[in-house]
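User: Can you predict the 3D structure for this chain?
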Amino acid sequence: MSTNVVSAPTVAARDPSTPVSDEVGSTAADRLTSRIGAVLFLLGLVVLVISTQLHPAHEDPMDNPAVFREYAQSDLWIAVHLGQFAGFLLVIGGLVALYYSIAIRPDAAAAIARFGFAVSITTGAAFTILQAVDGIALKRAVDAWASAPPDQQGATFAAAEAIRWIEIGVNSLAFSLVGLTLVLYGIALALSGYFPRWIGWLAIAAGIAHVIRGVGVSYQGFVPSIAALVGLALLALWTVVMAVLMWRQGDVQPVPARALARPESA
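Assistant: Here is the predicted structure, written as structure tokens:
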């Protein structure tokens, strides 16, 4: 006589320390964060475009006497740079939200996104310093030079030029950090299963262009650069597309991990 042994259904163990209501609330918060990030991306892009269009840019930026006169005559100089600062902080907020959109599950994409998140915060700090030097300190220096008596023109010009050199150095590193941030986020996006892979490659291309721009500024200063134009165009495109994808992600109703556990058939 044979005896058939029927195994009892196995059910995934539930962690009693995490209430189901908390998990549902977490997924709702993730969806809201994704949509907030989409709005921040678009708003930041608009603010950056408007403020940059108002930036005085008629003189050769490497012709210090001419460009310093132009800066001294600008009444919007500080306001424009505060606008650029605000716009970039909005974009950083979008990157923070994107990190949480990528790091939904513990995988390689989430691991790389952590490094992208860290570099994005460092980039925000670098741009804070850049706008303080370029938007405030340099403006004070060129105003002092423009209004200085003849016997103080040389000293005040040298002070303004020294600040300009500091600006070039900070600008180089800041935009190199932008490039590194985009490359890391691009790799994470390409590895994740939540966004199209091509959006990751677009971020990587924009990041490489920004790194080339940053390195170029460190060696040549503020000279015309194809890499800068390509990088800005790709970044603008990536920001818009990313905002649309993140907004759509807010419509997705993710299923909690425990809900995916089903009794195994006998």
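The radius of gyration is 25 Å. The longest helix spans residues 108-147.
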